Amino acid sequence: MSKKSFLKGLYIFCLVLLGIIYFPSITRGNNNPKILVGAAASLQPALKEFSKKYPQNVDYSFASSGILQQQIEQGAPIDVFISASSKQMDTLEKKNLLLSNNRKNLLLNQIVLITPQKNSLSLTNFSQLAQPKIKLIAIGEPRSVPAGQYAIEVFKNLGILASLESKFVFGNNVRETLTYVETGNADAGIVYLTDAKSSDKVKVITIADKKLHTSIIYPVAVIKSSKSQQTAKKYLESLQSKTARKIFQKYGFGIAK
Predict the structure, then answer these.
(1) What are the tens digits of pLDDT across the range 111-148?
(2) pTM of this prediction?
(3) Which CB contacts under 8 angstroms, 24+ apart, belong to 47-55?
């Protein structure tokens, strides 16, 4: 076995182990069933506010969409999945793990270049990241974090990926990527506009041209193995209500049609 294959196998094992450790703690009593929503980490601030407006029996598991996808494949008891990318939802759909005729496109987002609020690097665009004065760039781990995948697409299409690869610091999800920049542990970072708007410790330098990356669409679906499908369907409908849309738009999301 090559070193690369061994490390890939170890990475997947760790993801599955995290799911096994976490999910048995979820309470699912028959008389008061809860649904568990696995949601992209970038949705955490908005969904926490939404949960105050929709105070039903819902637990959340926030992580990168790639990790949640693998946990669902391994049988984690997730009832509703909200992904930050169509890619992970497409994979689950091909494996027949989604409830039929249930998937919806929920939200839209944008990719931005950020620096710490007090940073004096005078960046104005993505291509300037190739300058020697930029030492560390935080992006999501592109194998499991959609924001990292979009960042790689932007760099490839600008023709600067090779010159940046040695500078990458990888976050396990987009919120961790944001933290690297907030704390000054990276000179710059690539996150969603919604994450940047949630922080007063970073500033947005520029928004990536939509032509440089795949469209950022957040799909949502009920998982086929859910034991509470009716409750999960009602929750999914609530995400499309006027109340929910106002909250999502407040945090900078677009509404998918």
Answers:
(1) 999 999 987 888 999 999 999 999 999 999 999 999 99
(2) 0.83
(3) 49/247, 49/250, 49/251, 50/239, 50/243, 50/244, 50/247, 53/243, 53/244, 53/247, 54/235, 54/238, 54/243, 54/244
